Amino acid sequence: MNNMPLLDDLRLFCLVVRNRSFVASAMELGVSPAYVSKRIAVLEDALKVRLLHRTTRRVSMTEDGETVYRWTQRIVEEVEQMAEAVTMAKTTPRGLLRISTSAGFGRKRIAPALSELVLRYPDLRIQLELLARPVDLIGEGFDLDIRIGGDSEPNLMVKKIADNARVLCAAPAYLERRGRPQRLSDLERHECIVIRERDQSFGVWRLRGPDRVETVRVAGGLSCNNGEIVHQWAVDGHGIVLRSLWDVAADLQAGRLVRVLPGYHQQADICAVYPLRLTESAKVRVCVEFLKSRLGNEVGSYDEMTS
User: Fold this and answer.
1) Nearest in space to 256 (alpha carbons), one of 234, 239, 240, 226
2) Contact status, residue 126 vs residue 101, Cβ threshold 8 Å
């Protein structure tokens, strides 16, 4: 092959695949959609294959495009690792760091921490995405996912960065009106405010009790896919909620919420999940270590609440 593809065009192709759009990719790079289209056409000409199906709304990969995408990810990764090996990248964090996490936790805890992190490392660029769904870390091109509870894929690295648990709680006004549940099964007759967490089934609460792990099906007049809304509904007295201690600790301390069935909790440690060993990426290593230090200090007082 005399006309070899350019590495920059391969990177651009990956960006278009992730964004599924020429326009969105052009906006991210600060270039025109016509330039993006032209470079993809040059790449297709170099490879002698059609890589993308183009429509007015989005683009999708052809079969050849999927093959090229898999190889391109490997090629780009190898080139970046080579650059790290011959520069200071293994000791000095730099470049783009793509991070995903859940919405409420990301807004309240991760975003403020990252604001401090970039002040320390001006060569580090961070792209934070707040998602209410499980993430395909490698397939979607993320460097790091901050998860609360749940299992991880066997091909990924996991590091716990803070202890955390979900607890049952409700507003005093609700408990005065409906009474306190005495057993976990009593929750089936209570108003429970349900949220679809990233790591658990909707309407099924699995908690560790005094003797064993127990499961209860719950329902109520209110449910939502946003934890901050569910939290506020609980404070407003609409029912019982299962929420992380990092989220409800202040309300428990102030008396706006009260623990229900304090002998039960759901372990939901905060973990960093990433595809490469920390020794292979300074930007991921520095971020994970910083979050561990920052969040570990923030949740240190929660131990008393779970005892």
Assistant:
1) 234
2) no
Rounded Cα distance, 191 and 171, in Å: 12
Domains of the chain as residue ranges with CATH: 7-85 (1.10.10.10), 95-162+269-306 (3.40.190.10), 165-267 (3.40.190.290)
Rounded distance, CA 206 to CA 164, Å?
Answer: 15
In whole angstroms, give the CA distance from residue 63 to residue 231: 45
DSSP 188-238: GGS-B-EE--TTS-TTEEEEE-SSSEEEEE---S-EES-HHHHHHHHHTTS
Residue closest to 145 by CA, chosen among 189, 176, 101:
101
Burial of 296 from C-beta contacts in 10 A (0-12 / 13-18 / 19+):
middle
Pairing of strands 144-148, 157-162: unpaired
Residue given tokens 């809304």 in the structure block: 229
Note the pLDDT tens digit of each residue in 164-215. 999 999 999 999 999 999 999 999 999 999 987 655 567 889 999 988 999 9
| Phi–psi pair at 264, nearest 5 degrees | -115, 145
d(Cα 274, Cα 27) in Å, to the nearest integer? 27
- The verdict on pTM exceeding 0.70 is no
CA distance 199 to 230: 17
- Summarised one tens digit per residue, pLDDT across range 74-94 is 888 888 777 766 565 566 788
Locate all alpha helices (DSSP H) within 48-144, ordered by sequence: 63-86, 103-105, 111-120
Pick the closest to residue 272 from 168, 167, 166, 142 (CA basis).
Answer: 142
Query: Could you tell me which of 25, 3, 19, 13 has the C-alpha nearest to residue 50?
Result: 13
The candidate with the shortest Cα–Cα distance to 298, out of 109, 100, 104, 106, is 109
pLDDT at position 303 is 47
Whole-number pLDDT of residue 188: 93
> Rounded to an integer, what distance in angstroms lies between the CA atom of residue 236 and that of residue 172?
10
